[in-house]
Specification:
This protein has 58 residues and is mainly α. 60% of the residues lie in helices and 0% in strands. It is built from 2 helices and no strands.
Amino acid sequence: MSSSTGDPNAQIAAKLKALYQSVQEEAIPARFLDLLEKLDAAEQHSTPQGRSVLQGRE
């Protein structure tokens, strides 16, 4: 990326893009994935016929 060193907006944009890309590359912690699985299971047990709460709102 060729950004002008004198343009603060270009510098900010380049740094934000680099930060965003590094966050995208991070692995999702196993603890978080486990929590999501537990939430899915709880939702399936609490709604009729295992339907998602959001399905009725479409």
